[in-house]
């Protein structure tokens, strides 16, 4: 379950910042975040049985106060930086919103369901995280709360202006690379995409209209994967990631042609980061290449 993704986290953040450049401050009322450790802002701290936690140093050393916050990161993570770009506060962890919080107020400003270890598949790290289907279940509770408080039209109007952000898929791919008996890469990716479709369609019917989807990075270049290839990255994991990105982006494209009231942005983090790695290989910035640091997903 432990995976080495520090370089990967940083690079995904860099890509996303460039990617989000076009959004003006103040036009988005809220962000609802779904995903894994690349976006978790503390949900796993509220899962007593989970070992997938980042509630210890050096996580958080560069964050406000230098304390671990449940982020799988030394400082701000992708969810924080995206929120900043949109002029919003980071959406708080869903599991920290308890009965003494005004739920309408909390939910209307955005919530994060992202949970370290989660994958597209319900089986990925089940019992250790909020699985992706669990995250969507929780959003349906949020949706119902907003409908009850504001009425259906106002709730749907609010949600249609909000950003729904997804950073999910890496953990499914990491699990696949560890399996001994497994489907072909294409069959595996097809099953990921069809599971993704079910959840994205549920979210569409619950009011999601503006999606930001961050595809998986070159997972085969994570330190744990590089140990499997003396010379370079694990090609199989990189190819899976590329296939998944292709599948996810095709799915979004089809959803857009099915629904006139639907927009999305897709970032192919694999292509973007591989290009970046290639540039590094051809320069003397070798110290920037991924090798040293380890971190849990
Ligand atoms: C969790 O909720 C408490 C009480 O509302 C609040 O003080 C704290 O900042 C919250 N933590 C996070 C990580 O959002
Ligand atoms: C919760 O917040 C909403 C929106 O700000 C407000 O209308 C409502 O009265 C609040 N409910 C309680 C119980 O304070
Ligand atoms: C190992 O890296 C080399 C060089 O990039 C690549 O050609 C080869 O396919 C990789 N092998 C595996 C098993 O990933
Ligand atoms: C698009 O609509 C068709 C016809 O209703 C449906 O079969 C298909 O699953 C939909 N695809 C997506 C990605 O929404
Ligand atoms: C989708 O994008 C188009 C073109 O930018 C815009 O006119 C439309 O309002 C957007 N719809 C939603 C639901 O965001």
Automatic annotation (TrEMBL):
* Segments passing through the bilayer: 7-24
Example of a GO biological process term: lipid catabolic process
Species in which this protein is naturally found: Dioscorea cayennensis subsp. rotundata
For this chain, one GO molecular function annotation is: hydrolase activity, acting on ester bonds
The answer, when asked if ATP-binding is one of the entry's keywords, is no
Q: Which family does it belong to?
A: Belongs to the 'GDSL' lipolytic enzyme family.
**What is the name of this protein?**
GDSL esterase/lipase At5g55050-like
Sorted keywords for this record are: Hydrolase, Lipid degradation, Lipid metabolism, Membrane, Transmembrane, Transmembrane helix
Which CDD domains does this chain map to? SGNH_plant_lipase_like
